[in-house]
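User: Before I run my own analysis I want an independent prediction to cross-check against. Here's the chain; please return only the structure tokens and, at the end, one sentence I can use as a sanity check.
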Amino acid sequence: MIALLLSSACALAAGAPDTPAVELPDGPAATAWAGVGPATTPAAIGGTWLDEQARDAGGAGDPLTDRWLAWARWLKAEAADAGEHPDPQRRTGLALLALEQRRWGDAWRHLARLSAHPGFAAGLMPRLLPGAPADAEILAGGLLAPLADGVVLRPAPPPATERAGRRIQTRRATVHGLRIGAAWIDMALLVEPAGVEVTLTHVGGAATSLAVRLPQPAGRLIGIEYNDWFRQDTVGDPLAVELTPECDPVVLFGRFVPTDHILPASPAGRLPAGLDGGGLWIEVGPTCEALRPRARAAAKALGELLDIPAGLREPIAPPPASPWHGTLVHLADPQQAESVLTAIASAAEAHVLPDAPLEKR
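Assistant: Structure tokens:
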């Protein structure tokens, strides 16, 4: 069953295209979103809100490190309450950080914990679907004000509704009546074992343009992308689309290349001995040098979050003297290095805050 969440049932019945609706698979995220009514005032979490919250929580004076430290400290604060009474600002901050790191499942689960705080859910949903920019205006009921022609959208894949292990769970989500410029469009997202698909349909108004960055679910890499079934030369760039009243729906597709991540933390319970005793050490290979600042900030935050030694280690350093039981993570493949850090962060969330388990496939 699909939960259909409408801003105005009467307007939809009248066929008005300017009343967006979001369809999600039944589950905790859909339940939280169902608590947002047409008159719900969205929390003001756009613009520089996350920067300010992270700076106050991190206190390192460096925006990247502040974000990672804020993530660790917000998680520990939520875990101290066993997740029973979620703080809406912390949960919203955790969701936005998860979106930045493309930890889609963690972002959806933090949204699901906002059932008692519909204003924050209303402010957060447009960042997930349709993936609106941080500075987009959000109206009552969590509806987006008209977006500018040429907007770049970064939608999250639909939330999974069951633990799927290594297999991909097929799921769908739809945004109806999205206003871009003088046009109304529908955006449908589908995740299936072969890949991720975004279908854009012009449903009213004038011609418009936009770009969409395809989301990459956890545990998968997109190896090939297609724009209206034309193969693209690059992967990961926003796909530009022109929509006119006369055109057929435009389909964007990313084909998966399976990949595995070796995670240095178990989903629950005690830390593995290699972490608990020897800590977590990240080696950044020469082809991944651009990720060094992020890896350094991540190691600092993970050390604080898990209360273990952690840091960077040069790949050319000699092996530690025996006995040594630390965990080494070597970032060598530029295509997979960022998603490895993402998987580690998701595993750490699962360990510290049980209501945010490992991201489902």
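Sanity check: Residues 273-352 form one domain.
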